[in-house]
Design brief:
Elements (H helix, E strand, L loop, with lengths): L1 H24 L8 E4 H18 L3 E6 L4 E6 L1 H17 L5 E15 L5 E13 L6 H4 L23 H11 L5 E5 L3 E17 L20 E2 L4 E5 L3 H12 L4 E5 L2 H10 L5 E5 L7 H9 L10 E6 L6 H7 L4 E4 L4 H11 L6 E2 L8
Parallel strand pairs: 2-4, 9-10, 9-11, 11-12, 12-13
Antiparallel strand pairs: 1-3, 3-7, 4-5, 5-7, 6-7, 8-14
Length: about 375
């Protein structure tokens, strides 16, 4: 059974890698930026990788510059994906010693934003260094070749798709960066890159403690407001997705209704009071999100002016947002949904009179 699970996981990794690479090579993957905390992102990565390092009795070290701004604007999903690739390789190809991630602030500068305004930005260098096998000079140029695993004889017992670094380089290229490598065969490797992020909160993040865990699940992401009078409907055929989504919403205290099919969604809209926002999954059996939305729009009771409809999708190819807008949706949210992205979407589309702001001490204003 363990062998079957391992084989299934490897096959799933390969399929996901092929899909990602296909999107990147065809120019159908967008960089989708949102506000995020570098400290929170790195702490999550540390907890994710720690057990893998512990299994091989490796030291996992995260060194983070305390001067890095607390909140920046960037595609946290793709940056996390890049770092998971680099950290996973570090642990995979290291038998003793350590894997170390370092993040440092190179400097800040003013750049021109998307709307032509001047914004402050931070240039940050992130590197992953290990004391592993290292790479031969003649193999360095082949590292990012698709499906190529260098030093195959030595690494024959190490699982991998041969696509991780190719995807990493393509993602960095999409962000205007590049992967740099220093390696000594038999001693280890150091992979690094630089990214430029718009600063949203310039407060230095201070001392980074990867072992520090939130006191409660609710403190992982603290919403800046509550919406106790808002009526929100979630429609997804996957019960686990509904539970996770509901958990994110509960921090904002809305009235939540749930549907597990397009038909159930339509029935709820027909018999319930009008909803403020409907979050509608795209890929559902029998009646998908687009078909459900089309039927909703034909209902006499459906108040299109009042109710905003946001589609939930893993389809992040270039032009996807415009396709959904053309179909009549108000917007879309990428799955898996990040708390910050959900909060921003609600703040954008919910009637402002239903948003209760929280003061800095946590009390409602």
């Amino acid at each position: 059974m363990a062998d079957i699970k391992a084989a299934s996981a490897t096959l799933l990794d390969l399929i996901n890698d092929i899909l990602d690479l296909s999107k990147l090579e065809s120019g159908k993957m967008d960089i989708i930026e949102s506000e995020y905390s570098i400290s929170d992102m790195l702490a999550g990565l540390y907890r994710m990788m720690k057990f893998k390092a512990d299994e091989k009795k490796l030291d996992l070290i995260f060194e983070v510059d305390p001067e890095i701004p607390r909140v920046v604007m960037g595609d946290v999903k793709r940056i996390r994906q890049i770092l998971i690739n680099l950290l996973t390789n570090g642990v995979k190809y290291t038998e003793k010693g350590y894997v170390k991630l370092s993040a440092s602030l190179i400097g800040t500068e003013q750049i021109t934003g998307e709307e032509g305004n001047t914004v402050n930005s931070a240039r940050i260098r992130i590197s992953v260094k290990d004391t592993g096998m290292g790479i031969k000079d003649e193999d360095i140029g082949r590292l990012t070749d698709k499906y190529v695993r260098v030093d195959e004889r030595r690494n024959r017992n190490i699982e991998g798709t041969g696509l991780g670094l190719a995807i990493t380089c393509e993602l960095l290229n999409l962000m205007g960066s590049e992967l740099k490598l220093e390696s000594v065969y038999g001693e280890g490797s150091d992979f690094g890159f630089e990214i430029v992020h718009t600063i949203k909160d310039a407060t230095p993040l201070g001392k980074f403690d990867p072992e520090m865990k939130p006191k409660s699940k609710a403190s992982v992401h603290k919403s800046g407001f509550t919406i106790p009078d808002a009526r929100i409907l979630i429609c997804d055929d996957n019960n686990m997705n509904i539970r996770v989504f509901s958990g994110l919403l509960k921090k904002m205290s809305p009235k939540i209704s749930k549907a597990t099919s397009g038909k159930e969604c339509i029935d709820l809209v027909a018999r319930e009071e009008p909803f403020d926002i409907i979050f509608l999954d795209h890929m559902m059996p029998e009646m998908d999100g687009i078909m459900t939305f089309e039927r909703l729009c034909k209902m006499e009771k459906f108040d299109r002016k009042r109710t905003k409809v946001i589609i939930l999708t893993a389809n992040v190819i270039s032009g996807a947002r415009q396709q959904y807008m053309d179909a009549g949706f108000d917007d879309y949210l990428e799955k898996p949904v990040l708390p910050e992205a959900l909060e921003a979407m609600i703040e954008k589309y919910l009637d402002p009179s239903k948003i209760v702001r929280n003061s800095e001490d946590g009390q409602e204003e």
